[in-house]
Amino acid sequence: MSSDFEAYEQDFGTATAEVTNKIGRIPKLSGEEKTQLVLNVDKQLEEVRELLEQMDLEVREIPIQSRAMYNSRLKSYKQEMEKLEKDFKRSRIAYSDEVRNELLGDDASSSENQRAHLLDNTEKLERSSRRLEAGYQIAVETAHQRLARERERETERGVQATDRAPRLLALLPKKIHALL
Length: 180
Fold this sequence. Notes:
By secondary structure, this protein is mostly helical. The chain has helices at about 1-25, 30-60, 65-105, 110-155, 165-180.
């Protein structure tokens, strides 16, 4: 299994190097050649995303003892992918502003800065949303585990188990607020 993961790692390294090279070339080109390169990079990024999905599936099949090491490697590859996508978005913004300038003949450097700022803020918002969702999921799981433990204790003591789910679930918003 790990040999498949390592093969995917090699493919990932090769693909990301090609994409990085092409992203760096986008601002230097113009016209149809630039358009084709943008489309090509977009297609390659999709292939890299699929490769990451395959790597994720492989990690799930690896024995638990070795899984942590592979998970950390996969996490760093995902971060590298996010950086590539961010660089590609920026190169596309420069590309679209260049086309706009050619058509309209005006300087849109402030527009480029605004778009870059908007993209950065959008990415921050998406990351925050993912963190909130993960925190909420942890809170729900914790509440369910706590409920199960309480029921086990009551059963062991011979006390008739009562339904404490409403009380535990009422604590859930407090836990979520604490995560923020």
